[in-house]
Design a protein that fits this description.
Length: 155
């Protein structure tokens, strides 16, 4: 048995059905929010090395690959990310009810994972504030219903 059906919205894998775990523990990013996110990112996705944290079903990283990213690493609740190289695009889509986990992950972010000018995008509930973060400059917020995309640039 599979969870909610979701499809890749654009790129070489457009229309491909993605399996998701059954139940409500995984909340895949909606097609509308994914489409908006990647429209905002635009051409910077081409050739990007993507780190998809709180990956769940992996819809954000798979969408990034479909749209031209050259590499994606998916991390879901692992105690250690392992031996990683640096990335220029990080996508975080944690469970909305786990705001403490999101803040802890952002504060503990290993800056050696990030290339200069890396883009970090956090999907979170619009009522959940993200505190100022070391070496991450807030770029913009976009709201889609109760969902907010918050964009940071690593300096």
């Amino acid at each position: 048995m599979s969870g909610p059906a979701t499809r890749v919205t654009a790129g070489i894998s457009r229309g491909r059905l993605l399996k998701t775990p059954p139940g409500r523990a995984t909340r895949p990013t909606t097609a509308m929010v994914r489409e908006a996110l990647f429209n905002i990112i635009g051409d910077s996705i081409r050739g990007a090395r993507v780190l998809d944290l709180f990956a769940g079903a992996g819809t954000l990283g798979i969408e990034a690959l479909s749209r031209g990213a050259t590499h994606a690493t998916f991390v879901e609740r692992g105690p250690h990310a392992g031996d990683l190289t640096s990335y220029n695009l990080l996508l975080l889509d944690p469970p909305y009810r786990d705001s403490g986990g999101l803040i802890s992950a952002l504060q503990a972010l290993d800056h050696s994972l990030l290339r200069d000018q890396a883009l970090l995008v956090v999907e979170h509930h619009r009522s959940q504030p993200i505190p100022p973060l070391e070496r991450l400059v807030h770029v913009r917020d976009r709201n889609y219903g109760t969902t907010r995309l918050t964009f940071f640039r690593y300096i």
